[in-house]
Amino acid sequence: MVNKHRIKAKYGMTEGQYRRLFYTGQDRRCALCTNQISLGDSNTCFDKQAQKFFCRKCLFGINALRRLGGLLDKAVEFVKGEN
Ligand SMILES: [Zn+2]
């Protein structure tokens, strides 16, 4: 069970909004890879900036992309060139 006070403080929304976003808004799926995720699982992460739920693997990638900032497009070209 997710602590409601912790949710409000951490995400700026009520437990009801948080659960609605997860169950209805995202149909219990990672916003990026669309794999099934579950609330309370340590591999399910809520990203405050995107206001979305992701699996841990996708959020790790997204955060890595954010750190690249202005180098993102250049990095994408490198990765595409590897195929
Ligand atoms: Zn994912």
Q: What does it look like?
A:
The chain has 83 residues and is mainly alpha-helical. It has one domain (4-80): His-Me finger endonuclease fold (3-Layer(aba) Sandwich), CATH 3.40.1800. It has four helices and two strands, in the order H-H-E-E-H-H. A hairpin with a 4-residue loop joins strand 1 (44-47) and strand 2. The longest helix has 13 residues, at 56-68. The mean pLDDT is 92. The protein binds zinc ion.
**Number of helices, counting only DSSP H or I runs of 4 residues or more:** 4
Which architecture does the CATH hierarchy give at level 2? 3-Layer(aba) Sandwich
Helix share, percent = 40-55%
Distance between the termini: 44 Å
Task: Identify the CATH class.
Answer: Alpha Beta
Stretches where pLDDT is under 50 for at least 5 consecutive residues are none
How many strands, what sense, and barrel or not for the largest sheet? 2 strands, antiparallel
How many DSSP-defined strands? Answer: 2
User: How much of the residues is beta strand, in percent?
Assistant: 5-15%
Residue-averaged pLDDT:
92
Spatial order of the strands forming the largest sheet:
1-2
Quick description:
This protein is mainly α. It contains four helices and two strands.
Using brief descriptors, characterize the structure shown.
His-Me finger endonuclease fold, mainly alpha, 4 helices, binds zinc ion, 83 residues, elongated
Q: Can you lay out the helices and strands and say which pair or pack?
A:
Layout (H helix, E strand, L loop, with lengths): L3 H8 L3 H11 L18 E4 L4 E4 H13 L3 H10 L2
Antiparallel strand pairs: 1-2
Bound molecules: zinc ion (ZN).
